Amino acid sequence: MPTQPASTDVLVVGGGVIGLAAAYRLASDGATVRLVDASGTRGASWAAAGMLAPVSEAIFGERELTRLNLAAVPAFVRFAAQLESALRESGTELPVGLRTDGTLAVALNADDRAALDRLTEFRNSLGLASERLTGSATRRLEPYLSTAVRGGVLALDDLSVDNRRYLTALRAGCEAAGVEFVAGEVAQLTSREGRTTGALTTDGVEFSAGTVLLCSGAATGRLLDVGVQPVKGQILRLAVPERLRAAGEVLTRTVRGIVRGSEVYLVPRAGGEVVVGATSEQQGEDTTVTAGGVYELLRNAYELLPISSEFSFVEARAGTRPGTADNAPLLGRIDDGLVLATGHYRNGILLSALTAEAVAAVLANAPLAPEWSPFGAARFRSEGYAPCR
Ligand code: FAD
Ligand code: GLY
């Protein structure tokens, strides 16, 4: 017989950035919240680069997603400030490492420049502010860039956060707000008369709740067939040596490059770390780091920023982005007891605060912000939901 702890208002399945942000918001609003996570919050959110980049992530055909991503920036800034201040009031200083220096998108050769110009035209047509720069103006902003760089575009509305600090702060905020954490893997959701009532773990424990909030990222398809597919990303963490840091920051803002047709980004952190990412591969739930992935990232980083060959190698990791057919999240009610918040693909860190707000609205049966209307949980499943058992 499965053991059955007391029921809670909400059971959150998945403790990545989406589950944590939602749990924090709901518990702060007074709900009793239990969060079950299988990996100790080491999913895609831990691997991520932490860019909050509605401008430089905007690609052709994604107007509605771009609108959502733009709305996510002020929501993130408010949420992070509120989280930091709530922790400070309880005696804990956990700054999340928000940076507001913008993104510099650069191109290596003439073809790359043409590709960047086409993207910039599209971004400008959406009203996104980005300033076109010559090669020398680009290098005046970031003097360590290669002399081969053909030019760039500065997007001041993109931000970044140290996602690992943010996750640590979210976890501390959840604990302070009374969220109960459970280490365990949900094997299946439980239901009665068409309504989800809880979840059963592989250890045989059945957790019941008024609402189950499914935030299981790229692994969602194991529990519910809603159209989430893992998209693997390999990513590196390098460290700028002290002797270089003594002369000032080697990179003062996020740099995203098109390098002979392939893309790379370099995201600096206050402590001297530079995050270099990321591959994009359809490999199922595989998170192996490959020699080819590391080579590609180091080569592209070196082409843009030759001095990166002097950085020390700290970490190579792979995470799986929760992808969907339109690259946008799935948010909303599936049945009276089940709410879905997943599929955030390349922008889960950026969208975390806006998602937490939206989840709170769904649970309160309040209207969602209009930016969410194209991204309902049911849009890929007209014939209804098939729980995976
Ligand atoms: P996850 O962080 O993967 O968390 C899901 C959690 O659910 C995991 O902890 C897992 O253990 C748990 N889980 C799954 N199934 C079960 C189960 N059955 N039972 C219990 N627990 C379960 N986004 C940005 O906004 N900016 C970026 O710069 C950025 N860079 C990225 C770089 C890389 C290399 C990658 C891979 C992603 C990047 N992303 C970025 C995307 C972002 O990381 C994701 O969109 C986001 O982390 C998704 O959050 P999540 O909470 O849904 O998933
Ligand atoms: N948003 C960056 C990535 O997913 O790699």
Describe, in plain words, how this protein is organized in 3D.
The structure is a single chain. This protein is α/β, with parallel strands linked by helices. Helices cover 29% and strands 28% of the residues. The strands form 3 sheets. Strands 1, 2, 8, 9, 10, 11, 17 and 18 form an 8-stranded mixed beta sheet that branches. Strands 5-6-4-13-14-15-12-16 form an 8-stranded mixed beta sheet, with helices on both faces. Helix 3 packs across helix 9. The longest helix has 27 residues. The C terminus is likely disordered. Bound molecules: flavin-adenine dinucleotide (FAD) and glycine. Flavin-adenine dinucleotide binds next to helix 1, strand 2, helix 2, strand 12 and strand 16.
Keywords:
single chain, 389 residues, alpha/beta, eight-stranded mixed beta sheet, globular, disordered C terminus, binds flavin-adenine dinucleotide, binds glycine
What's the layout of helices and strands?
Elements: E1 8-13, H1 17-28, E2 33-37, H2 44-47, E3 51-52, H3 63-89, E4 103-107, H4 110-125, E5 131-134, H5 135-141, E6 151-155, E7 159-160, H6 163-176, E8 180-183, E9 186-192, E10 195-201, E11 206-214, E12 229-239, H7 242-245, E13 254-259, E14 262-268, E15 273-277, H8 291-304, E16 312-323, E17 330-335, E18 338-342, H9 348-363
Parallel strand pairs: 1-2, 1-11, 2-8, 4-13, 11-18
Antiparallel strand pairs: 3-7, 4-6, 5-6, 9-10, 10-11, 12-15, 12-16, 13-14, 14-15, 17-18
The chain binds flavin-adenine dinucleotide and glycine.
